[in-house]
Hints:
Blueprint: H1 5-10, H2 12-15, H3 21-30, E1 32-36, H4 42-52, E2 56-60, H5 85-96, E3 101-105, H6 114-118, E4 123-126, H7 131-144, E5 148-154, E6 157-163, H8 171-174, H9 187-190, H10 196-213, E7 222-227, E8 232-237, H11 256-264, E9 279-280, H12 282-290, E10 296-299, H13 303-308, E11 315-316, H14 319-322, E12 335-338, H15 343-354, E13 360-363, H16 366-374
Amino acid sequence: MTLTAAERTRYSRHLLLPEVGLVGQLRLKASRVLVVGLGGLGAPASLYLSAAGVGTLGLADCDQIEVSNLQRQILYAEADVGADKVTTTAARLGQLNSATVIMQHRTTIDATNAESIVADYDLVLDGTDNFSTRYLLNDTCVQQGKPYIYGSILRFAGQASVFYPPYGPCYRCLFPYPPAAGQVPSCAEGGVLGVLPGQIGAIQATEALKVLLGVGTTLLGRLLTLDALTMNVSEFSLQRDADCPACGPAANIRSLGASHTACAMQPQDLDSFTESDSELSLDELHKMRANGLPHLLVDVRSAAEYAICHIEGSLLIPLDELAPRLAQLPTDRPLIVHCKTGPRSRQAVKMMRQIGLKQARTLDGGILAWAKAYDQTLALY
């Protein structure tokens, strides 16, 4: 493998760096990086990796572009709304660097395909926004001995690190098991400053390039945190956990099937609400409202979410304010509880039923499903 004259011109600023040079640029050209999630983190990271000359980029995502993405996902334009992210990103990167080989994975990374997809790459950069995929990617990288470039964002705060046993800890050394469903809000629920994903995504791309080049001091064994409100950057030292379920001597996650189960059902989730009559379908609620049947619609989202959109006649009681207000809820009519998509409303219904409000039910799919099915005037977020 060599660099053409055109490539030497293109990457001349890299070639001038003693830490990169010709050998380093050839190493990047031979590298294969998988970017999982093409949202706020994956978008800037993939742009920088392609521009830097990484030879092969794998793009994994199953989502379509939505209007609410445009506030932070700078790969996309208004005309792209409705298109799938992988195809659109591949086209954009092709315009940026036609020499980059793009592998498209328009799918959800899960226990059935993670092993085969990750096996084709040298390194995984995680741009996902859900715990299940994050833990699955970590466990897959541990089993295949590959570096895992981590990043996460919420509101004004971001984190980044490099996980790569046995040279340092894995993600489960820091967080052995995922939080219970609904315990930690997503960016779609809690919001995020639009420029923050670009900052963290660029850090992830930087760490990926350093790992591929074998230069500098990476974030291996360190967790970098950024507070965009104060622009304070902090660093925490991380150690391998001898009891880590993924990379410790007595690791009990030996297969991706076990990893998937561990992500989906943790000890703190075992008492989650599972009664068969706990959910109300969208059609059932629509009929209740159309026929004027008595009920109370309880919205357990935040006040900020309620301001973006809400169902007419709903009562706002944010989940973190629900406990002291349970006694105020009526007992003479059905309580139909909803959040954005379902996790928080299930928690709320469990709390209600524990004090005897047996008529409480969660709205299947939350307000987003209701808006798409019955009220297209509501804003989506």
